[in-house]
Every structure is written in structure tokens, then in C-alpha cells.
Amino acid sequence: MTQKILVTVVVGGAVYLLTNVFGPSEEDGPWQLVLSVLCGGIVLIVQFLASFVNQMHAVKNSVDDRFADIGRATKLFNEVEKLRGDGVPRLAEHATKVVSMGPDILHAFAHAEIDRLAAQMEDFTNLSAECPGENHDWLMTLTGCTRESIDAISTTVVDDGFWSTEPAGRYLTAQREAIIERQIRVRRLFIVKRPEEFGALGPICTEQRDMGIDVRVVALEELPPYFRRGKMIDFIVFDEALSYEIHADQLSVNSSTTVNARANEVEPLIRRFNLLWEAAAPANSPNGVPGGLRVGSNGSDPAGGV
């Protein structure tokens, strides 16, 4: 406001001086003063109008932004409404609470976990997600979400010693619960390099069969070449629709885990599992020792290959 008054006074004074210098001196009357006041008033009004226009633009932009925020919030609320029975509303409620309480390290950790979960959900929109190492949380969650079947291939190269660990105990317990409570079919195929390794798997096979898991073992050395084509990786197919794949590096260390629901990538894994499953021994053979291979009469691949 002070600036506007100063500008008005300066303009009015300048007009008054100019009219005195250039105007006819013989004329009577205070027309110079009136003209200067008039010009100063016009300048003041123009300044107020310009300020008013700027404020109106600011208000319009603010209103537009608010309506855009309301539109996004409404859309988000409608999406969250679809998940009312899930944990999304609970996540939003507690996320806003945790970032306003406790030490700064807790806030940073909460924000990092929210960002990680958001990135994972974004990956799931592409029907696939990957994480470093072996993700036991995914494994347990998928087991709890299964409604029909679990088909797994385990290689001794990758999971040697895994079945004696605490995560394996929780995993087997979750599978037993799925079998008993939801009548889920669980099949596990162990793949070893040589028949001499069958004996070491005996206790593991016995334990899992006692839990209701259908277990078989097959030796790569006893398989025809077309059975051994492709990578021998650990994978699990849930409900014949989603795969959980474990990838190992050159040192046989689990380097990454992929969850994949793309049909064109899951179906080859299903065919591969069924091919090797048929080549393995019946589930009731001692220690899973494989019997004769079930191949076509002309030696062709019964599953058409993968």
C-alpha cells in the first residue's frame, strides 16, 4: 500500500511540475493542481486494478488446484472403497499416525517402507515383481492365499540345508494348514544330479509326506536329454496361475526372487513341472526312488517340450 501511495505522489508531482514548466503561465486557476491530482488518482486506481487482477488470478489458480486435489482424492477414495475389506484403509490410517510420533529414524523407516510397498504394487500392475535374495514373506503370503494347488520344484544345489531352517519350518507348517483347512493339493519334486543322492533326501521326503505333501524325487542322470533342456531353477506355481521363482548366481547363492502372473511365462513352468513329475517315481516308493521313465513309445517328449 505504501508503495502505491508513493507512486501516486511521484506521478502527481511530476505532472504538476510539467504543467507549470510547459503550460501557459498567463492562464488563471489551479488547473495544474487539478490535473496532477487527477493523474495521480488514475495511477492509483490502475495500481489497485492490477493488484486486484493478480489476486483474482491467484485465487483462480488456488481454486483450480483445490478442485484438482479434490478430484484426485475422490478418485483415490473410490479406489480405496473397493478394498475396504483389505488392509489399505488400515495402512493409510496407521501410516499417518506413525509419521507423527516417535523418533526421526522411525519416521524415515516408515516412509521407506511405504515407498517400497508402493513400488511393489506398481510392479504388480505389470503382473511381475522382483526382489533381491529369497523373499520368505512372499512365500508365506502366497501359501496363505492359495485356493487350489501348489506345485514346487526344489533342487539340492539351490536349497541344500534349507529344510532344516526356521523359515522352512514355518513354510511347511503353512502348507500343512493349507492341506488340512482348505484341501489344497501340494506336490513337491526334488531334483538331484545322481541317484546316489536319494538317500540324503529320505528323511525330508518322509517328513513332508507325513504332512500330506505329495513328494517325488528324480535324478538328472537318469533323464533323457530333452528332459534336461533349459535352466534347472527352483520355482513354485500357485493355483496354476502365478509363479514364485528363485534365481541363483554362479556361486549357487540365491540372488533374486521373482513373482510372475504372466500366463505366457507361467504356462511353460507348469508344463515343465508336469513333464518332470511324470518322469519321477510314484509318491509311495521308498525314499522317492524313481522308477521307469514314462516316455512315448517312439521316445518323443510326452509334454511337447518347453
Structure explained in plain terms:
Helix 5 packs parallel to helix 7. The chain contains 9 helices and 7 strands; from the N terminus they run H-H-H-H-E-H-E-H-H-E-H-E-E-E-E-H. With 306 residues, the chain is α/β, with parallel strands linked by helices. Helix 8 links the parallel strand 3 and strand 4. Among the domains are: 31 residues, no CATH class; 156 residues, Endonuclease Chain A (Endonuclease, Chain A). The longest helix has 52 residues. It is elongated, with a radius of gyration of 38 Å.
CATH superfamily of the domain at 133-288: Endonuclease Chain A
CATH topology name of the domain at 133-288, in short, is: Endonuclease, Chain A
The residue fraction in helices comes out at 40-55%
Query: What's the N-to-C terminus distance?
Result: 80 Å
Shape: elongated
Under CATH at level 1, the class of the domain at 133-288 stands as Alpha Beta
Helix/strand/pairing category: alpha/beta
